[in-house]
Design goal:
By secondary structure, the protein is an alpha/beta fold. The protein has one domain: Rossmann fold (3-Layer(aba) Sandwich), CATH 3.40.50.720. The chain contains 6 helices and 9 strands; from the N terminus they run E-H-E-H-E-H-E-E-E-H-E-H-E-H-E. It has a 7-stranded parallel sheet, with helices on both faces. The protein has a two-stranded antiparallel sheet with strand order 5-6. Helix 1 crosses helix 6. The protein is globular, with a radius of gyration of 16 Å.
């Protein structure tokens, strides 16, 4: 049994991950900004009351992250999954930018994962197999010159670098890190025309997590196990 903390577990990939993990017997601390309003997550917790714990978390608020850390004091976390994220503002072109929306995107997608990782680091250090997994996107790869949704792309490029650096700094503590592209998934964010179903993405993600060790730490991977260019 593995103890997971998943941010943004109220829908899409986060909800599917929590479901898959609970079904196979793992325990999951599932967070959302307002768990009481997350009907599917509430139903999942009713199905697995001994495996699913629901806690509120807004990754953009220091106070919310600190409250989460206090609520988890004394527990052990084996795997942190940084999944919470937003697509960004409607206007996010280099020629027409919603700058407050850009800042919100960076705060959620880039700073949020680092806030949470730092806050729960003592709980990860209690694990025999500590891992930090961050859901990023191929849209953040610097090998791509596409410019649509530039706020989102920039936030994912930035979180890739942050997590690459975090992996370097945590290697001495035996904490493995993985940054991953979940595929273009049919979720609210990905849209109905996306390439793959959420179940295919999450099955691949869990396989990557299961095989993540300090020896293969610090990579940027596709959900299907292939390596991506930073």
């Amino acid at each position: 049994m593995t103890n997971y903390l998943i941010t943004g577990a109220n829908r899409g990939i986060g909800l599917a991950l929590a479901t898959l993990l609970a079904e196979r017997g793992d325990t999951v601390i599932a967070t959302a900004r307002d768990p009481k309003a997350a009907s599917e997550l509430l139903s999942l917790a009713d199905r697995f009351p001994d495996r699913i714990t629901l806690l509120p978390l807004d990754v953009t608020h220091d106070a919310s992250v600190s409250t989460l850390a206090r609520a988890l004091h004394g527990r052990t976390i084996d795997v942190l999954v940084n999944n919470a994220g937003i697509i960004g503002p409607d206007r996010q072109s280099t020629l027409d930018m919603d700058f407050p929306g850009f800042l919100e995107t960076l705060d959620t997608n880039t700073l949020g994962p680092l806030r949470v990782a730092q806050a729960v680091l003592p709980l990860l250090k209690k694990s025999g197999t500590p891992r930090i997994v961050t859901v990023s996107s191929m849209m953040g790869s610097l090998s791509s010159k596409q410019s649509d949704k530039i706020a989102y792309r920039t936030s994912k490029a930035a979180v890739n670098k942050v997590m690459q650096g975090l992996g370097t700094d945590l290697r001495k503590d035996g904490i493995a890190t993985l940054t991953l592209h979940p595929g273009w998934v049919r979720t609210d964010m990905g849209g109905s025309g996306a390439d793959i179903d959420v179940s295919e993405s999450t099955a691949g993600i869990v396989k990557l997590i299961d095989t993540l060790t300090i020896s293969n730490s610090g990579r940027f991977m596709n959900y299907d196990g292939t390596e991506r260019a930073w």
